[in-house]
Design goal:
40% of the residues lie in helices and 19% in strands. It has 72 residues and is of the alpha+beta class. A three-stranded antiparallel beta sheet has the order 1-2-3. The longest helix is centred in the first third of the chain and has 15 residues. The radius of gyration is 12 Å and the shape is globular.
Length: 72
């Protein structure tokens, strides 16, 4: 289930993004980025619609996935 960003408080969205950045080991290429920079990159992808926040009832968890990989 896709969770619309406007249904999340700014604090909750920040926590979801930070958790994603810290646990996913996302590859940002050869250049190193700070936590704040990585959070900003993920936030930009969410705001552009390139990525979405997804809740899994099966796993009772929240994740961020590429929008193209999520069926509406």
């Amino acid at each position: 289930m896709i969770i619309p960003l406007n249904q999340l408080s700014p604090e909750v969205l920040d926590a979801i993004i930070e958790q994603f950045v810290l646990t996913e080991g996302t590859d940002y290429g050869a250049q190193e980025f700070s936590l704040n920079q990585k959070v900003a990159m993920v936030r930009a992808r969410l705001e552009s619609g390139e990525a979405v926040v997804v809740y899994s009832e099966l796993h009772d968890s929240v994740n961020i996935l590429p929008a193209k990989d999520v069926q509406p």
